[in-house]
Amino acid sequence: MTTIDTPSTDTAPTAPAACHGTAPATGPHGYSGEKEAHLKRLRRIEGQIRGLQRMVDEDVYCIDILTQVSASTKALQSFALSLLEEHLRHCVAAAAAAEDGGEELNAKVAEASAAIARLLRT
């Protein structure tokens, strides 16, 4: 059975078990097939954040910085939604297809619901 840890706001979340329950956390995940594309996307977002640092360092107009913050935030939200969709299609679907996956399925659904709630709070 997979347990769900709800991270507090002052600590980093712990790594959940792999999508396949008892498999190690380094196993194939829903995003594995698109790993390079995701890394490329994250590097682009990292560049946006570095751009924000540069803008502040160069005393750029406040509204221009806020516009860039908004773009960076939307890029991260889009990435998160993509990852969530892959989790639902791969990990939750695998738990639903498992013969004895009732408890695991419930845990995966609760895990996804908690992730959605965290995304909505931001």
Short structural summary:
It is built from 3 helices and no strands.
Could you characterize what this model shows?
65% of the residues lie in helices and 0% in strands. With 122 residues, it is mainly α. Helix 1 (35-57) runs antiparallel to helix 2 (62-97) and helix 2 runs antiparallel to helix 3 (102-121). It is elongated, with a radius of gyration of 18 Å. The two termini are 29 Å apart. The model is unreliable at 1-18 and 22-26 (pLDDT under 50). Keywords: Copper. Belongs to the CsoR family. Residues 1-35 are annotated as: Disordered.
What level of helicity do the residues show? 55-70%
**Regarding quaternary structure, how should these chains be classified?**
single chain
Strand content: under 5%
The number of distinct helices, counting runs of at least 4 residues, comes to 3
Structural class: mainly alpha
Please tell me the overall pLDDT.
80
Shape: elongated
Radius of gyration, in Å, reads 18 Å
Which features characterize this protein?
single chain; 122 residues; mainly alpha; 3 helices; disordered N terminus
Layout of secondary structure:
Blueprint: H1 35-57, H2 62-97, H3 102-121
Helix pairs in contact: 1-2, 2-3
